[in-house]
Amino acid sequence: MQPHRKRQWCIAQLTANFLCEMERVLDVYALPYDERFPVLCFDEQPCFLIGDVMAPVPMEPGRVAKEDYEYRRFGSCAVLLAVEPKTGRRFAKVCARQEYTAFMEDLERAYPAAVQITLLQDNLNTHHGGSFYKFMAPQAAHRLVGRFESVYTPKHASWLNRAELEFSALQRQCLNRRIPTLEQLRSEVEAWVAARERAGVTLNGQFSTQVARRTLGRHYEAIRIK
Hints:
- This protein has helices spanning 16-30, 100-110, 130-135, 138-146, 163-175, 182-198, 209-215, 217-223; strands at 39-52, 71-84, 89-95, 117-121, 148-152.
- The chain is α/β, with parallel strands linked by helices.
- It has one domain (18-223): Ribonuclease H-like superfamily/Ribonuclease H (Nucleotidyltransferase, domain 5, 2-Layer Sandwich), CATH 3.30.420.
- This is IS630 family transposase.
């Protein structure tokens, strides 16, 4: 018995709606690359600004770095990130608060020749064209809504959003340490994005609609009316 151990996961209800929305996401990933209709994955995460109370001891040959357990919080911020899976093109923004509308404007400017941008994102209430109307004139908001085709992951299925993979890498390679200021965090994230793009990292998954139907076959059968 090891009662102190536990695992945490997100349990989804594999309903007909879930399977329908999942297949739509997977079909979007399967589309051939077309620069006129770019496909981007978007996500955002809160981030805390944390600094040291006592100066840490730097690493030396034969000795690991040390830091005091006590720390100081300097507030919070938001990291917004979008990635084009097939090309590896990335966009990231560190903000003092959530700036969904401003970030979408940045994405639109980055693709001036695009007919429409397919935006795959989590199904949050702020991830909606309605957010544009809160910060823009109706004409401008309506125009911006038309520039995007939003595709949402099913509830409890954010793992389908490949921006989650980018945030996982960002957490391991950049955010898993104390960063006290917004300016330093912004500089670190921008450097990370530049390094990922220089390395040409793309996000080509193997989980397709056909694989989903084989893997989740019993769930497809369970929802069918006999």
